[in-house]
Amino acid sequence: MILFLVIYILGAIGFLIHLFSLAPIERTKAKIIELLLLYQLVFSVGLTSFLAFIGLNFLPETVEAYTEWPSCPYQQELANVNLAYGVLGILAIWFRKSFWTCIVIGFTIWIFGDAIHHFYDAFKYNNFSHGNVGALVYTDIFVPILLCINLYYYLKDRRNLVLD
Question: pTM here?
Answer without folding.
Answer: 0.90
